[in-house]
């Protein structure tokens, strides 16, 4: 009987989602695994490891003498020593395209919060100030429509394309910057980064963190952006220099929505928590990917990876 160990099941939520793993063998689920020693102890007899963010390095791999398969409960695999796993004949499988709809939706959630000045108007009503108004409405914080605006997308992968499609439905003109330099989508105008920053009213980031995107957006880039522009980061926190961003938010009228930060959870000394113009910034705790539907699909795709591996022998290992 195979032993399956999920090291950080809390990252996918409700344990009821995980019942399907029991059909593969002895399934052991840990809510969190917070140290390397814990990891080594827990995977000692595992044939299959499931991990979202727990690091599986060569020490962990060496400690798991029965290990055949590592399933990453995410798309990114930077927490796995891929080369060492390969050298040991251990298969590593990730999951892609499970959160496209969820991240797209959250992109617009952040946008509408900032664009519609939602926090200000919600506070206005709940503070009972609107009760004292002489007119039926309030125009203190004017807002704009998406229609007719230029939307710049940094990273036109599956999520970037979905966001582009929705943005077009609202009447936006979409342009994009390819972080890899390889993407040449004929549907949208490809521009260099500086041009995108200068000409866009709304910018959303949907790129991975790598050598080409790390610290991509610094103070000089932020200062190229239009006054009143909106910047949304749904990619990875390290793409934007957070110290520079905090400074620019307080020195320039720029609106920012973030679902990711360089270190997660965010650290208490992060300068973004100390900006003066808090109404220009919304930060959510890396939840864009995590709709109930997306998490259910994630678990199903992990199950499929295990099924294909167990059924396919060597072919399964190469899948």
Task: Describe this structure as you would to a colleague.
With 319 residues, the chain is α/β, with parallel strands linked by helices. It folds into 2 domains: 2-96 and 292-318, Rossmann fold (3-Layer(aba) Sandwich), CATH 3.40.50; 100-283, Rossmann fold (3-Layer(aba) Sandwich). The chain is 33% helix and 15% strand. It has helices spanning 36-42, 58-63, 82-87, 100-115, 118-126, 158-169, 193-199, 219-222, 242-251, 292-318; strands spanning 2-6, 25-29, 48-51, 69-72, 91-93, 150-154, 173-177, 189-190, 202-205, 230-233, 255-258, 281-283. Strands 8-7-6-9-10-11-12 form a 7-stranded parallel sheet, sandwiched between helices. The chain has a 5-stranded parallel sheet with strand order 2-1-3-4-5. Helix 4 (100-115) crosses helix 6 (158-169). The longest helix is centred in the C-terminal third of the chain and has 27 residues, at 292-318. The two termini are 22 Å apart. The model is unreliable at 314-319 (pLDDT under 50).
